[in-house]
Amino acid sequence: MPTESKPLFNHDLLMNPEDVRAARHVFPAIGDVLDWPDLRAAFAPHERAAIHAKRQSRGSGVLALAAALAALWLAVLVPEITRYFPGRLTPQVLTIAVAALATAGLVLASRVLIGARKERWLHHRTATERLRQLHFQFLARRARQIAEGDGTVTAAILEERERTLEMLRIDLRPGMTRPADAIMEDLGGADCWLVDEPAPDPALAARPAVLGELFHAYARLRFQHQADYATKKIAPGIGLWPWEPEGQARRINATAYALTFMVVVCNVLAVAVLALALPGEVWLSVGTQTISMLAATGALALRVLEDGIRPRAEVTRLRNYRGEVLELYRKFEATTDVAVKISLMERLEELSYRELRDFLTLHHEASFVL
Hints:
Helix content: over 70%
Largest sheet: none
Order of helices and strands: HHHHHHHHHHHHH
Low-confidence stretches: 1-8
Structural class: mainly alpha
Radius of gyration: 27 Å
């Protein structure tokens, strides 16, 4: 499959024309099964809506924290500002500014914490993953029929999956149902499967070459793709605020450590200035204490951010998921037994459903979507 320099993870559904061409070239016998235009048409609007909702929630969360932090910093600086600008209106103006910033922070935070943006994001992200699961559940549960190679059987499978897709599209319409809530409550995984088990057919004769191609396609597009996705998500990342949660956690910890170190240094300097009775001790002592308070509130804001997005919990979840995917992948590649391979494919689909439930639970409880 084609590769990209930025994190795009929908090549498994062949969302780009070059993906379709590559899949049909590499897997010619099952190209019609891998290439599902109607699924892509259902997937794309949910993907766009999820990205848009996430950007909105991210913007509100960042602005809420910035406004609250600015209010705290301004409140800390009020005594110094009134000292150097002693006009009669200065305290009143500063008080109004602090109140305005604090109110803006509360309003923006309410849009993140109790607003509908995060819920919309979770809904559309649920929809994209359920559509993805539908595609690969058909490969897992109809593998033998697909490999049988009979045109009539293949046509029946394609017709069946179109009917299933239409029912799923109805279930995933915003406002119709709350699939995210249903999945979070489905602790036993009873609703995992969107595709029924195939009826036994003693006359079914799967062609080994086609079955081998299907297994190879599933390994590339499902096992390897899921493992690569998790690997990229737990990478350190680059930039000031990386896309990866591992990178976010590292940036937060490093900055909070630096601010905490600054608090300690400023307090030591303040004590030293007073103890040594240095020239300008009042100014130096007040200055170091002010910087210390600014740094302390900055560190507090970072911890609030960390608690809001929970990057460490996300990394732990992804590490566990990646480990389980790779273990199933290892077993899948090691066996030549058709029944065992199909069983491992089904286990991966069940694991994917559990991972989706864990993802929804984590982000439902998190304050921000960043």
